[in-house]
Every structure is written in structure tokens, then in C-alpha cells.
Amino acid sequence: MVGTVQHNKRSFFVGALPGLPPVEPGREFLVEAGYLPARTRDGKGAVRDNAHLYFMLHRAMYKPKKRKLIVWLNGGPGCSSFDGSMMEIGAWRFENGKLGWTKLGGSWNEYADVLYVDQPVGTGFSYVQNDGYAKSLTQVGEEFLIFLRNFVSEYPEYDRQRHKDRGPGGAVDVYITGESFAGEYIPYIANSILTVGNSAPIKLAGIAIGNGDMDPKAQSGSEVDTLVDAGIWKANGPEVQEMKSTVQKCQEALAKDEIPHIRYPECDAILHKVLNISTHKRNDTEYCINSYDLRLEDTSPACGMNWPNELAATYTFLRKSEVRKALHVDQINKPEAWIECNTAVSRSLRAESRKSKASVSLLPHLLDSQLPILLFAGDKDIICNYLGLKRMVDTLEWSGKRGLDGTPLDWRINGELVGTWHADRNLTFVRVYNASHMVAYDQPLPAHDMMLRFMGVDMNLGANAAALNTSTVGLDARILVPDRGKTHIPGHATPSSRLPLSSAEKLVSPPTSTATDNKSGALADRNSHFDLWGNVFVIALVALAVAGCLLVRRRVRMRPVRYQAVEPYQAGMDVDPNAQVSVPPSMEHDMEMEPFALGDEEEVMTPK
Questions:
Q1: Burial (0-12, 13-18, 19+ Cβ within 10 Å), 252
Q2: Residues 6+ apart with CB under 8 A from 539
Q3: pLDDT per residue as tens digits for the range 188-237
Q4: Catalytically annotated residue among 107, 126, 180, 346
Q5: Which of 330, 381, 483, 590 is catalytic?
Q6: Active site residue 284
Q7: Which residues cross the membrane (predicted)?
Q8: 23-458+580-608: CATH number
Q9: Does the active-site annotation cover 476?
Q10: In 3D, which of 419, 434, 376, 424 has the Cα closest to residue 397?
């Protein structure tokens, strides 16, 4: 019989990670990882079903004026958050099969602590006995709340109760973030936290969801419109005609419910058919469109499940015994090799997902509770695409009004148009140009800037930061990050193993106007955005930034912060306080959008 393993703070410390090169001086940070209970009897006492969630905590490299904690979840359901840590927002990434450090400006733990969690139980390195997987999103929310209580018990610096004597602003701001099917998880988790009121273990300061699976009524059928909008299909072409009956059946199923459920088989069939229509043979091999990036194609029937290109290296890395040992993977309770998405977790939630209310139904309450919400969408995704999310926002009612007032603002980094920004009544909706389902994979610097803006981080820049990245939303300008002269952090180029769709090669840059949605096939060249006044404005911003640096030359240079839980390096601890810590963020490849789309329980298309 497998017993419950007792964990403690001392066992969480992670030293050097095998295969990771030495960190650049000044970017050191602490990493801790391990397990905490997520299911107890009657919410307290002994652990039930030996249910434990695996976590990895990356402390901030640099200390902002007010400490922040970002919690990152991938989707699926059942996809590991190592996707996020190793391919999206983490401190290290694979390049040409080798693990290395993310370029400055691309890692979310530069100015905030980041907590990656494999959840629900059974996901990634997490475990549970007796096939006791979560059966509803309400249960997912409740068990994550138990995990958070155990987390702040181990790390009281994040405990809301510990700081309540300092007033509402005393506790650490916590933001729960994620993508794809995390669009269902996160509102349910946030609702669980708000429901317990003042006894909540953390100070929830906001939630952020990228390309989320949230609203079947608004999102179903938008796959077709997205391909038409991209110029891949014609508005009245044969592909669109072939899709009409499938979309109609979905709409009829949705019409039966005033509040939509999470999943409808009739609506899941839409993506399945899109992929079938796109399938074609070339050199005796069948290819189809990549459901996570319409600019790419993949072999059939994967249609994107082999993507990103770094996924294979992530599998190899996380299955190494020395890596598992370094990351404190429980060899007794989790002897199985790491997999990106656990279909058993997905299957367990399947029946209930056809009864549970879609998370969009929770958004009005969360917004009216004054909880800031960021919804962002890479505009090259198909499975949880921008158009579907825009329709959801446009029809959402809260605070006595429908949709967002005003018009979207241009969002630029270093003068380059990277998206649009629309904020009103606690809701921020961001379109990220030329980004896939995994926004930070393609656009790491804009994704990081977006999160820093949402959290209101003051980065406490040092006077020697001669080269700076500038960020503007409308007329609101700020300095993004010092970049030591490297002013562009590229996303991932199209992998050689993925073949770009010939019809998608037209998709070069975003539309020129942000006031309305242009549905043109061939998009104008990005340089058309840079008129004379735009250039003058950017030059003025850079001049102001340099002047600001000169004025603060005497300020102390920003130093890396080494946070440690409670009492750092107590006597007797078997860790070296001077050791260089280099631990890669957990990597996950969660196909987060259509967890139950294909009907075959063993080969489901999951929203990462």
C-alpha cells in the first residue's frame, strides 16, 4: 500500500538542473519544487486518495516595489504546466534541441514570482490513488483552494491572513493565469476563492486567460470565420458550404440551453470537420492545418498535436532520471514517465462537462466583484481563436452594460505595432498580432509587457540601463525592460518540420486600423503603420527614457533577489546558500482547446 509522503520546506529546494548552462550574472533566482495535498476529508485532516499536486516555484530575478505572484496553469484538461514553463513564459527554453536561458525580457519571473502547478490531480507529475481524478470543475476549484491553503502554510510570505494587519494592500498580489482550457479552470478557481471571502488564503488581485475555452455559444463556428478572415477559405467557397450543416447542428444544440454547458458533441464536431476538410496528400504523406496556428500545417491526424517543435525535446528532458530527481518528482507515487496531457484526467471530466455551466457564466459575477480580468488572444489560433473571444466579450453583460465601451487602442513595442488593447469596467481584452494559441511562444516580449502592464509593475530600473525597450498603449508610454542593447526578442520561426500553408503565407502583418476589425485576406505590410508622426513619437519616447536614466544615475543598481521561504538557509540545511540556482520552468504542451473534440477518448484534441 502506498502511503502519503510527508513533505517539508527543506525538501523543496532545487539546485542545479542537469543540462542547463550557467546563468548570466545578475539573473540568478531560487527554484523550489515538490508536492502538496489537494484533497482532504471534509476539507481538513488526512489526505484523501493520496491526492497531491506538483508545483514548481520560480522566485523573481529582480525585486519590484511591490511583490507579485503569478500562478500559471495550462489547459487540456489534463495538460502539464511544464508547457508554460519550458515553451512559453519560463526562464529557460529549448533551442536547436539544447536547453538554454530565455532572452532578457521574455521570462515572467523577472519581476514577479511564478508558480507553475500541474493540476487537476493526475496531470503532469501530480498524482492520485484509485483513479480518483476530478469529476467536475467545481471540484477542481475546491481542490485548488485546498492546495493554496497548503501552499501558504509552507510559504507564509504569500499568506493573505499574515498581512491583513497591514491593510488591504499589505499582502502579496496574486494573479492566476493560464491558457486554453484553463479558461474554464480559472474562473471556477477564482469563484472558489471569492466565495470564502476574508478566509481566502491569498490576496487574489486578478486573473488572466489566453486563447481561452470559455463560451460555446460565442466560440463555436468561429473556426470557419477565422479561416475566411485569414484568406485561407473564401467566404462562399466549397469548404464553407460543406461546414454549414455541422455548424447548424451545433447552433441547434446550443439553443436548447439558456446558459451554455462546457461541452457539446455537436459543437466539437466543427473543429474535427475543419481538420478533415483541410487534409491533403503530398508526397504520399497526409497533411492538415495546425489547429493551434493557421500559418502552419502538420501531419494528419495530429493536425497540431506534434507542435510546438520543442515538444519532443521537452519529453526527452523531463523523462531523464536525473532531471526527475532534481525536480523532486516522487518516484514512489509517480513512477510513470512524464506526458504532456493525461487523457485519463480529461476523460474523468468528460461526462460532467456536458452538464456544468461554461465559465463565461461566472465572468459577470467576478467582474462585478471588482476582480480585474485580462483576456488575451493570439490572432493566428484556430481552436480558441480571437474572433470567438471577441464575440464573447461583445455580448457579455456586467455592471449594467453590454460589452466594452470605447475603441481598442494601438499597442506598440519599440514602435512596432504588436496588437490592440481595450479596457473598461475591470475587463481588459488584448489582441496579440501574429501569435498562435500559445501567445508567449511566438511573442515573448509583448506577452511579458502585457502581463507587467496588467499587474501595474514598477520595475525599479537601474541607472546603468542604457538601452531600453519602450511600450505604448495609445498615448500611455512606459519603459518595458532594460535589454543591454538587444532591442528585439524574436518569437519562434516556423520550424522546418512544420510546413507553412501556402494560402497562409499572405498573413504577414496586422490590419492598419484598430477601430474596426478588418476582414481582409492579404494583410498590409507592418511598415505601413509607421508614419512620420509615429516615428517622431517613438524618438521622443526614447529621448525621454535616456534623460530619465541620466537623472537617476545615483540610484542603486537593480540586484537579483534571493527569496527563500520563511527563514532562509537555517543551520543544518543541506543546501549551499551561495550555489547558483538554474532550474528550468516546467514545460508543458497542453492542447488546451478541444479536449473532447474528436470523439476518440484515446486521441482527443485538447486545448493546451
A1: exposed
A2: none
A3: 999 999 999 999 999 999 999 999 999 999 999 999 999 999 999 999 99
A4: 180
A5: 381
A6: no
A7: 532-552
A8: 3.40.50.1820
A9: no
A10: 424
Inform me whether the pLDDT recorded for 139 exceeds 60: yes
Q: What residues contact residue 486 under an 8 Å CB cut-off, 6+ apart?
A: 103, 104, 467
Q: Which listed residue (58, 437, 529, 589) is catalytic?
A: 437
Domain boundaries, the chain: 23-458+580-608
127 to 13, 48, 51, 461, 555: CA distances (angstroms) = 20, 12, 6, 42, 48
d(CA 522, CA 231): 7
All three cell numbers of 140, joined, read: 477542481
CA atoms within 13 A on the CB side of 481: 28
Assign 343 to helix, strand or coil.
helix
pLDDT confidence tier of residue 605, bands split at 50, 70 and 90 = low
Q: Is 298 a catalytic residue?
A: no
Cβ neighbours, 10 Å, residue 347: 18
Instruction: State the cell numbers at 96.
Output: 536547436
With beta carbons less than 8 A apart as the criterion, state whether 69 and 206 touch: no
- pLDDT tens profile 82-99: 999 999 999 999 998 899
Return the C-alpha cell found at 207: 486573473
List beta partners, residue 397. Answer: 402
Cα(546)–Cα(517) distance, integer angstroms: 36
